[in-house]
C-alpha cells in the first residue's frame, strides 16, 4: 500500500471508529472526514487561487491573465439521462463561481453486458447538453467495468471566469438569505 493510500485508510479508519462506524453510508462523506482528507493537497502552487475545501464548488487557477475554473463531479443519483445530468451538474458549479463553462471531459463507466445503444444514448445526451450550453467536449474516457452496477458518468468541466471576481459559496449563501427575507412592498395601499 502506498504512503498516501495508507494515510487515507488510516484517516477513514480513525474517523469511523471514533464514531462507532465500520463502514461509510451512501452519499457524501461526513464533513469531518472530508476535512481530514483535504489536508493532502499535493504540491503547493501559487497559481491555485481557490483549492479544495468543504462547501467549495470548484477550483480556480490563475493562468496568465485568465482565471480558469475547474470542476469535477460524478452523477450517481440516476442512470436515466446520466450524460445530460453530468454536463448540467458540472456546468452549474462553474457558473455559480462566476465562470462560463467551456470545456468538458466525461468519464463514462458502464457494467459489462451493457447494450451499445445505452452507451450511444449517453454520448448523444452529453453532446446535446454541451451544444445547448456552447461547451466543447475535449476528451474523456469510456469503459465497461464490473466496478459499477449501472452507468456512471463523472464529468470534468472547465471554464473561464467572466465575473469581475470569484463568487464564493459564503457570498451565495448570504445572498440567498437576503432574498429569502425580502418581501415586496404593497403598491397603492390606503
How does this model look, in words?
This protein is an alpha/beta fold and 190 residues long. The chain has 2 domains: 1-40, no CATH class; 46-181, 60s Ribosomal Protein L30, Chain: A (2-Layer Sandwich), CATH 3.30.1330. The protein has 5 helices and 7 strands. It has helices at 3-18, 31-37, 82-96, 116-133, 169-181, and strands at residues 48-50, 59-63, 66-75, 99-110, 136-137, 141-144, 152-161. Strands 1, 2, 3, 4, 5, 6 and 7 form a 7-stranded mixed β-sheet that branches. Helix 4 links the parallel strand 4 (99-110) and strand 5 (136-137). Helix 3 packs parallel to helix 4 (116-133). Mean pLDDT is 85; it is low at 182-190.
Quick synopsis:
The N and C termini lie far apart (76 Å). The longest helix has 18 residues, at 116-133. The chain has two domains: 1-40, no CATH class; 46-181, 60s Ribosomal Protein L30, Chain: A (2-Layer Sandwich).
Look at the structure and give the CATH class of the largest domain. Alpha Beta
Helix segment count? 5
SSE string, helix = H, strand = E?
HHEEEHEHEEEH
**What's the number of structural domains?**
2
How are the SSEs placed, and which strands pair?
Elements: H1 3-18, H2 31-37, E1 48-50, E2 59-63, E3 66-75, H3 82-96, E4 99-110, H4 116-133, E5 136-137, E6 141-144, E7 152-161, H5 169-181
Parallel strand pairs: 4-5, 4-6
Antiparallel strand pairs: 1-2, 2-3, 3-7, 4-7
